[in-house]
Design a protein that fits this description.
Blueprint (H helix, E strand, L loop, with lengths): L5 E8 L3 H12 L4 E4 L7 H5 L4 E2 L4 H5 L6 H11 L12 H20 L4 E3 L20 E4 L2 E2 L21 H9 L7 H17 L4 E2 L1 H16 L2 E3 L6 E5 L2 E9 L2 E13 L8 H7 L17 H8 L4 E2 L4 E6 L23 E4 L13 H12 L7 E5 L1 H6 L22 E3 L2 H8 L3 H17 L36 E13 L2 E2 L6 E3 L5 E7 L19 H15 L6
Parallel strand pairs: 1-2, 1-11, 2-8, 11-20
Antiparallel strand pairs: 3-5, 4-5, 6-7, 9-10, 10-11, 12-18, 13-17, 14-15, 15-17, 16-17, 19-20
Helix pairs in contact: 1-8, 1-15, 4-5, 5-15, 6-7, 13-14
């Protein structure tokens, strides 16, 4: 290979979950690896996320005595392909089959490499669990909380997670989100506090969720001898005679060409922070509403398209229902509304006052539905409608407001309240008659025990702790009838985009005719999702990132049949 400043077997662009799994495969095979991260922090979008991976038939389910299979997962994924009503080029039966069969093997491989994983929850159902093959318990896998001091000099280069202490996602939900309905929450919060004090006294510095996953992966990758570089943006994928042979980055302010003997893997995130691309592909959404890191700007998707790849499913995003409380843009993670409107005594309405979705559904569908609604009638922002019963039990934007309204919430126009529904409608600019009729209709459904419009509460997922309230008798449905009544805005934010370059069942980038481009692989949200136009469950983006990084590396290294 001529014309390169240095050469590795495997060149990886980006440092997300798929980058790390691919590096571990290559290093076990004795191949040289370099990971090129354009920002000053390792971990990509994965690090800031919940770090959940959707892994059917995983070892942790088996350990809990639960039966699952690749066939059941295939049945589920196949059933979901028709829900959206139009084909998704980023998926195929062959690609879905590769995922469900290789996902548990990839998890076993990571565990064998010293990456400590565990079940995400025993009750975190698939988002369409009523469909054939849907799981009503949980197919989730996460990393155990991680002491970032184990990284030594790399500790400060691991991107911050959203919870920088020793707690699991499930513990956080039970302790905080249901503080007033879960009788055991006080004991759990005390347990977490004591654990945190102990860790501090012992000099430990824990992180959890996505940062824990990436911290554990980074530790394993460094121990395996991979070369990991920060502040190393890639501007070009080198293609010679139709074969991807390397990447162009920068060193000492000058172009630096790195050759790849076996291939290049692009796992550089999506385009959530690129407003121009959002305006083109998903109008009505805003970059500032995204929870992704600053580097999620889409250049590598554009580069892959330039050299022959095909973009697809670009109107998709992994939604994050954001409620813009005063100061929301100052925090590392903006206040979410996923579970707010899915809990008892709450609904979501458009700007006219009409309810238009199952508020307990998946966050991807929730935000997508809001954007679609906005194309017909004003629905961005939409309004969360709550009553006194709600605020006495649950938080709004992370704050309990039944005894004291946070400073600036009313003055800024964020929080609206009134003694009557009609008065609340006038305050938010909705039609009083329409909003009153909407609330009355909802209350009728609550009395009947069935949501006659959108079937909220019928699925197991609607009633889990991440959406509804499993610690209350009402779970998901509760009346809105006791004043004062409240309204706060909700906008369609995201935790990543969900469309990108089309790849095949081996993680290879394909051209417009469907033929793989030799030497070129991609994974993560750089790619059009293997799940299609549907977000199937928690971990439906990080899971495929990790798994197709594993699959791609095995293919490039010639390990498929070993």
């Amino acid at each position: 290979m001529d014309g390169f400043d240095e050469i590795f077997d495997w060149v990886v662009v980006g440092s997300g979950a798929g980058s790390m799994s691919s590096a571990l495969v290559m290093r076990q095979a004795g191949k040289s690896v370099v990971i090129l991260e354009k920002t000053d922090k390792i971990g990509g979008t994965t690090a800031k996320s919940g770090g959940v991976m959707w892994i059917p038939a995983n070892r942790f389910m088996a350990a809990d005595g639960e039966a699952d299979s690749a066939e059941a997962a295939m049945t589920y994924l196949d059933a979901l392909q028709a829900l959206d009503g139009h084909p998704a080029p980023g998926t195929s039966r062959e690609k879905r089959r590769a995922y469900v069969t290789q996902a548990p093997r990839a998890v076993d491989f990571l565990v064998d490499q010293g990456v400590a994983l565990q079940r995400g929850s025993t009750f975190w159902p698939d988002y369409y669990d009523e469909q054939p093959g849907g799981c009503k318990t949980s197919r989730t896998v996460v990393a155990r909380p991680f002491n970032r001091k184990e990284l030594g000099e790399w500790a400060d280069r691991l991107r911050q997670g959203f919870a920088e202490f020793n707690v699991t996602l499930v513990e956080g939900m039970e302790a905080q989100g249901h503080r007033r309905t879960n009788k055991a929450s006080g004991k759990l919060m005390a347990k977490i506090a004591l654990r945190t004090i102990r860790d501090k006294l012992l000099g430990r510095k824990y992180t959890t969720a996505g940062a824990a996953l990436q911290g554990r992966m980074l530790k394993a990758v460094l121990a395996a001898g991979a070369d990991v570089r920060t502040d190393t943006p890639v501007s070009e994928i080198v293609v010679q005679e139709g074969i991807a042979t390397g990447a162009v980055t920068v060193k000492d302010g000058k172009p630096w060409r790195i050759g790849a003997r076996l291939g290049v893997l692009v796992n550089a995130g999506g385009f959530a922070r690129n407003q121009a691309m959002r305006d083109r592909y998903m109008p009505g959404t805003r970059a500032e509403w995204s929870q992704t890191p600053e580097g999620d700007t889409g250049e590598m998707q554009q580069e892959l398209e330039r050299i022959g790849g095909r973009l697809a499913q670009m109107d998709q995003m992994v939604g994050y229902q954001l409620t813009p409380a005063p100061g929301w843009d100052k925090g590392y993670v903006a206040p979410g509304a996923q579970s707010m409107t899915g809990k008892p005594h709450a609904i979501l309405v458009d700007q006219g006052g009409t309810r238009f979705m199952n508020e307990g559904g998946s966050y991807e569908l929730y935000c997508e539905t809001m954007v679609r609604r906005n194309a017909v009638v004003p629905a961005v922002p939409s309004w969360a409608i709550l009553d006194r019963q709600y605020v006495e039990l649950y938080a709004v934007a992370g704050r309990f407001i039944d005894k004291a309204i946070p400073e600036g919430w009313v003055e800024s126009g964020y929080l609206h309240s009134a003694d009557t529904i009609e008065g609340l409608a006038a305050s938010i600019g909705a039609d009083p008659a329409i909003l009153a009729a909407t609330v009355a209709r909802w209350n009728g459904f609550v009395a009947d025990g069935k949501d006659g419009d959108f079937d909220r509460g019928a699925r197991a997922y609607d009633n889990c702790g991440f959406v509804g309230d499993p610690f209350s008798a009402e779970r998901s449905m509760g009346s809105i009838e006791k004043g004062p009544f409240y309204a706060v805005p909700v906008v369609p934010g995201d935790v990543s985009t969900y469309g990108g370059i089309v790849t095949d069942e081996r993680g290879r980038v394909v051209d417009g005719a469907g033929a793989p481009i030799p030497g070129l692989y991609a994974t993560g949200v750089t790619t059009a999702s293997v799940m299609g136009n549907v977000y199937v469950a928690a971990g439906a983006s990080i899971g495929p990132s990790m798994v197709f990084g594993y699959i791609a590396a095995r293919h490039a290294a010639g390990l498929e049949n070993q």
